[in-house]
Amino acid sequence: MKFNAVSDRDLLLKSFAGERSGHHRLAEIKAPMPGLVVKVLVKKGDNIKGGESLVILEAMKMENEIRVSYDSEVIDLFVSEGDVVEKGQVIAALS
Known about the structure:
Elements: H1 8-17, E1 27-30, E2 35-40, E3 47-48, E4 53-59, E5 62-67, E6 72-77, E7 84-85, E8 90-94
Antiparallel strand pairs: 1-8, 2-4, 2-7, 3-6, 4-5, 6-8
């Protein structure tokens, strides 16, 4: 048998990143922490590359870039600049 060891941190990051298994599966990007949406860097319909940022989220007086881990298209955005988000709140839907 073959097993892959996965840390709690990896599981948490995958849950927030909307890890996808199929080519056309819709993924939800979730806020990893509560905070204020300072800047929205994409718009609906944008094609983005893995590693690009979707939004900048301010939490505990620090700005955090919320990035995607794979090439995708922004299907929908659920936040605007100035919105306050809770941990786990859906920020965007990607395909």
